[in-house]
Amino acid sequence: MLAVMVIIQGALWYLAREAALAAARQGVDAERVRGAAAGAGARAALVFARNDASGYLLGPSATDLGSTPTTIQIKVTGHVPTFVPGLAINITQVVRAPVEKFVAPAGQ
Q: In this predicted structure, what is the pLDDT of residue 2?
């Protein structure tokens, strides 16, 4: 029985980690496009985590983790749903990507 509980808890951890990673990617994609408003990435990540990952990632939060004019960095944190009583597992995922910039084709 203990082995089954550990396997189920491991699956819940994996799903929460993937949900946090997907939310952070969503946030980076939202902010790295040309003309995006400041803070759009953290808002998009939080909306994704609350709406699309609500069963897998509990109490999500998203922050802009020191983005620069050339790099966007979003951090998403939350808690894993627990199957084992008394167990508390936190998840943190960070995604970093360059800001998109328009480059004219050669010869134009």
A: 82
